[in-house]
Amino acid sequence: LQLAGHPGRLLYQGGVTAERTDQFAARVTIAAGMSSLTDVYIKGGVNDHSQQYPTATTSGATAAANLIAYCKQLLAAGKRVFIEEEEGIDANWVPSIAAATVAHALQCAIQNALVKSFCESTKGATYIEFSPVIFDRSAATSKFLLGVKYDGTHDATGIALVKAQYFIAKYPTALPFAKP
């Protein structure tokens, strides 16, 4: 958000590369107990789907259930919760994963539908959807816009600004991390 000129700040960064959503629990408990923390931003699920946890056909529902449970825990602690859409991977960037892309995309779609539905019906929970600014909607399959992903999974440097600008424009009354 700071890249886009918003005076946001990060009080606690609990993310750990390559973890599945079931491995977030301890850090969610820490965040729930931090009195100085009013807003929590969560993104996860891609590793559940890539690792087919617990199975190839249930990773979407499992990741969604974990994220929803964490959201409920944080809401009960008085936090506002923002859960980012899981956009997944793109075979156009990583051809070696092309065979897994359809199943992976399906699990991402299941996760996103469940989490979005929960957030839409839950006060204090906001679903953050970046797909309008990161996917090429003219492509026949799910394809990231050029420069969005540097390896098919991880955000390229320039996308942080694009996401921040979109977030500020789309969710102006729900800007997190803004309290002085």
Q: Would you kindly provide a written description of the structure presented here, covering whatever features stand out?
A:
The chain contains six helices and three strands; from the N terminus they run H-E-H-H-E-H-E-H-H. Helix 4 (98-120) links the parallel strand 2 and strand 3 (125-128). With 180 residues, it is mainly alpha-helical. A three-stranded parallel sheet has the order 1-2-3.
List the helices and strands and how they pair.
Blueprint: H1 25-33, E1 39-42, H2 46-50, H3 59-76, E2 80-84, H4 98-120, E3 125-128, H5 131-134, H6 159-170
Parallel strand pairs: 1-2, 2-3
The number of helical elements comes to 6
The largest β sheet comes out as: 3 strands, parallel
- Which value, in Å, is the CA radius of gyration? 16 Å
Low-confidence parts lasting 5 or more residues at pLDDT below 50? none
Strand-residue proportion: 5-15%
Characteristics:
180 residues, mainly alpha, three-stranded parallel beta sheet, 3 strands
Structure summarized in a few sentences:
The protein is mostly helical. The protein is built from 6 helices and 3 strands; from the N terminus they run αβααβαβαα. Strands 1-2-3 form a 3-stranded parallel β-sheet.
